[in-house]
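Hi team,

Filling in the usual template for the complex we talked about on Friday. All components are listed, including any nucleic acid strands or ligand strings, so the model treats them as one assembly.

SUBMITTER: L.P.
PURPOSE: interface mapping
COMPONENTS: two
RESIDUES: 544
SEQUENCES:
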Amino acid sequence: MASRGAVVGSGALTRACIAINAKLTAIAAHLLEVDPADLDIEPGRVVVRGSKDNFVSTEQLVHAAYFDVRKLPDGVTPGMTEIGYYDPKFGTFANATHAAVVDVDIETGKVVVRDYVVIEDVGRLLHPLLADGQTRGAVIQGLSGALQERIVYDDAGMNTTTDLLTYPLFSARDLPRLHIEHVESKSEVSLTGVKGVGEGGTIAAPAAVANAVADALRHLATETVTSFPLTPEVVLALVHGTSLASRQ
Amino acid sequence: MKPPAFDYVRAESLEHALDTLGRYGDECRILAGGQSLIGQLNKRVLTPGVLLDINGLTQLRRVDDHGDTVVVGALTRHRDLEMRQAQRRDLPLFRRVASLIGHPQIRYRGTVGGSLCHSQEVAEWSVLCCLLEATITLRSATGRRTLTADEFFRSRFVTARAADELLEQVTIPTLDSMTGWFFDEVGHSHGATFIAVGVTGRLDNEGRLASLRVAAGGISEVPVESVISTSMIGESLTPEAVEDARARCLSEFRDRGHDDGPTSLDYRARAASNLVARGLLAIAAPPASATEGGDR
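RESULT (copied from the run log):
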């Protein structure tokens, strides 16, 4: 299931904004002496439909709500704060397709990711730049996990991977060219059509790299990729058919 | 964490540094580039009473070309050799070796002498010293002595340097114009290096090996020179000979190696012997391609 930050957050925010809009419209209708149904909300103001010069600014409406409550219609409470709640009945799923090009050195086991494409369907795209950034970060986490990261305990149960020297993370020089595209197909189960973005990158990247390595070794290895991380040692063991899996 | 409290002495001259070392001995640690020392202090693996900062001794930061040797001062930064511009046949090898160390920030601060004294079995300069039969000069207030790499490196983090001695310089014999070289390593792109391998060799007019040196780091507690350095002399580098060398190195590295650290000896022996084979093929190829190592 996808990240709930954007899915739940944008739903709750939308509901709160709907309530704020209703309040702005109610106050504007009272001040302009028109029916609320004849009003349109535009950026920075509320206008009478078909009469562009007949409007009140948002600033005037908020001022009335906080500092001049005599201008408020009966039944409208002071202040301009609304709370929205949202919890989707069903989780959303962010979909992504990843493709990786890797070099596998079959004499040292080193895997280098040369090229990488990810197409994300995040539902409604709220902020393209942030979505790209989140995708990039998520893919890098996925690649790092697939190729390098692991926690190692010694025989006494002591964690021996406690710093960046012993627990190597991907750094800038490990990064492949990363091509990111988006497809927008709005979710039918979330209020805003948002599906979430974070997990698409992290979850799919290891599979893409594993498949690329498996493909590279197809003609050589007697075994295929079944575990992470694909460290040089693991890859060389696959090449020579001496991995742990084959010994069992 | 922060380092434990220590007294700080900034060396004003070589004599001052040697006097300080003579006075404090084991209590004293030498601060050069600090790329290993500071981390060890912060983790409190080391708790020296005195830190002797030699960064002011600029006379130790030098690379002198004597024709048949290059003398590299202890305080020479890795970056100095990586960026050095000079007409020397072996300079591309030094550049290559320096470029494999850590990342640029480390290479700007870290020093050749510091790396050698730290004595990690897979450290690039350590492997290079073993490969090129470099000699290491130690100075104390009472004298000077010069050791081979074999004599200097004792085990991981242990060298023949006495507590009152300062590593002054490394003397590296020059490669002749007919000698090809190869140097490569395997590891994560920053941090842990698993193995490092260097090969130099010269073919005679009949295409037989007139000289050969094969050194590997990450196999044993110190860099090891392979027995094929002598046993292959006179052989031609045919595909069969290279395969034979690969098998001989694999067996030798397995026998001589230690099984310790994040990767198994079996992996390190296999990857290192494969790099040796790659190195032999590189020196068998025309000189232009013999000056390239593989990509990491």
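MY TAKE: Confidence is low (pLDDT under 50) at residues 288-296 of chain B. The interface with chain A takes residues 103, 186, 188-192, 194, 262-264, 266-267, 270-271, 274-275, 277-278, 294-296 of chain B (CB under 8 Å).

Thanks, L.
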